[in-house]
Specification:
- The protein is 27% helix and 23% strand.
- It is α+β, with helices and mostly antiparallel strands.
- A seven-stranded antiparallel β-sheet has the order 4-3-5-2-11-10-12, covered by helices on one side. Strands 6-7-8-9-13-14 form a six-stranded antiparallel β-sheet, covered by helices on one side. A four-stranded parallel β-sheet has the order 17-20-21-23, with helices on both faces.
- Strand 8 (183-190) and strand 9 form a beta hairpin.
- The chain is globular.
Length: 502
């Protein structure tokens, strides 16, 4: 398969990285509800369940049959939508919401979603999870033809494409816009009469459909959400996942399903299972929690360790560590305690304290660690800076040996479809082989789960190189750019260079 080439301006944006952050980040969560008397309240609850997908800003747009109402705020859902006065302003029995994680630059209010525009026949609100790989080209074309952008997010490109369509029905205009964009996306939209949900042609980004009973009216409504955990919190019943390339239209008359793209095998993002989705969510029929445990099982089979204890790096390494422990027969202990009350910033002491940033979030459970040979289990390694400091933390606590086992393959390539990854130059696995990474971390030994092992954890015999079951280019370098030919799209994907993202 083809490899994605970076746009020459990419390096000037600093990539997708966030200074000092050694985790991958997802690019937002979306939620929508149609036909419920407490639409705004339930949307706020749904966004709260999806808070892990974006913590920088949140917004809700509702419609009361005559007017749209919008509340968009910087910060967490619980800090902004916890007052009855705010919810009362969001009138109506239908609403959509969005949690935002920006990939570069400052978070500013004009980029907070859902975005809203008045079209010739209707109002149109839009929330977007993912990334448009041809957004730069489309934006330049739109601006050159007179479009005026109000934000720097690539999501606004979709609104302009819809606005310029000459189709009669809004759903036809929406579909025409989709056929011009490329990349990974899960979209929720709200107009005067309908709610729309859409997934990209490969199904990279997730979107699920649920139904919900309104006790006040006795009628059933519908819910769209990035993950099933958001259905659970509002008491909605899971109906199904939207299929890759599917567009659903929800109205007072029920649900219509449209399939505007040629059929293509789905390739959901493998990182939903590795890290992004909440453990209690179900993705493509698989329990995220159970798959993460199975990744630990496969890791124990591929990379056993002669140690005394299994220690997860919380919280991301916990399910895999359980699987590793059960398979290896080695005891599992909480040798690292996570502080859950660390905010985004903290006053750093003038006196030098080794591994200050890590110690804010993680503390060694020294009486468990002292004198022991341990194996640390984590879900992934990005830059390696956090792994290095945690290994050092374990040695400082008295560990005799510190082995590292990672429950996914080495991340050697950037993502352009909705994951906030550092530039290739910053990825530890892109700069070093396994032994080189081990030396950087200071670990006694280091092993990663193989690509085939990851697929076995998902229930497959291994990766099918001719038709991979997941989007896994961060490991393999094989990007789903074959869509250009399969779907008759216009150009090869390029990296979106906007100063701000969702």
């Amino acid at each position: 398969m083809a490899r994605v080439e970076k746009d020459p301006e990419y390096s000037r944006t600093g990539g997708y990285s966030r200074l000092g952050d050694d985790r991958l980040r997802e690019e937002c969560g979306v939620f929508g509800i149609f036909g419920h008397s407490e639409a705004a309240t339930l949307t706020a609850l749904g966004l709260h369940a999806l808070q892990h997908r974006g913590q920088e800003a949140a917004g809700i747009v509702s419609f009361d049959g005559r007017h749209f109402h919008s509340e968009r705020r910087l910060g967490l859902v619980g800090d902004n939508f916890n007052k009855r006065s705010v919810i009362r302003r969001l009138k109506g029995d239908r609403a959509i919401g969005h949690n935002r994680y920006s990939t570069s630059g400052d978070t500013i209010l004009r980029n907070v979603q859902p975005l809203f525009a008045d079209l010739s026949t209707t109002g149109f609100a839009l929330g977007h999870n993912g990334n448009l790989t041809n957004a730069v080209t489309l934006r330049r074309e739109l601006i050159s033809s007179g479009a005026i952008f109000q934000s720097t997010t690539d999501t606004e490109v979709i609104l302009h494409l819809i606005s310029r369509s000459q189709k009669r029905r809004v759903i036809e205009r929406f579909v025409e816009a989709l056929r011009q964009i490329e990349g990974g996306y899960g979209l929720v939209c709200l107009t005067n009469e309908i709610m729309i949900g859409a997934r990209d042609p490969v199904g990279i980004r997730p979107l699920v459909l649920g139904s919900i009973l309104d006790d006040k009216t006795g009628k059933s409504g519908y819910v769209l959400a990035s993950e099933t955990c958001a259905l659970d919190i509002v008491g909605a019943r899971f109906v199904r996942e939207l299929e890759n390339g599917e567009v659903v239209v929800i109205s007072a008359d029920g649900i219509e399903s449209h399939r505007p793209f040629p059929q293509h095998p789905p390739r959901p993002c493998i990182f939903e299972y590795i890290y992004f989705a909440r453990p209690d969510s179900i993705v493509a029929g698989r329990s995220v929690y159970e798959m993460r445990k199975q990744m630990g099982v496969e890791l124990a089979r591929e990379a056993p360790a002669d140690v005394d204890l299994i220690v997860p790096i919380p919280d991301s390494g916990v399910p895999a560590a359980i699987g590793y422990s059960r398979t290896s027969g080695l005891p599992y202990e909480l040798g690292i305690i996570r502080n859950h009350y660390v905010g985004r910033t903290f006053i750093e002491p003038k006196q030098k304290i080794r591994a200050f940033g890590v110690k804010l979030k993680h503390s060694a459970n020294a009486h468990i660690i002292r004198g022991k040979r341990i194996v640390l289990i984590d879900d992934s390694v990005v830059r390696g800076t956090t792994s290095q400091k945690i290994v050092e933390l374990m040695y400082d606590a008295g560990a005799r040996e510190v082995h590292m086992r990672i429950a996914c393959p080495p991340i050697r390539h950037s993502d352009y479809y909705g994951i906030d990854t550092p530039s290739v130059e910053e990825l530890l696995a892109a700069r070093h082989d396994i032994e080189g990474m081990r030396k950087v971390m200071g670990a006694t030994s280091l092993s990663f789960l193989s690509v085939d092992g990851l697929y076995r954890a998902a229930g497959f015999p291994g990766r099918d190189p001719k038709q991979p079951q997941f989007t896994d280019h961060c490991f393999t370098g094989e990007y789903p750019t074959h869509l250009t030919d399969k779907l008759g799209l216009t150009e090869q994907p390029q990296l979106s260079l906007l100063a701000e993202k969702r």
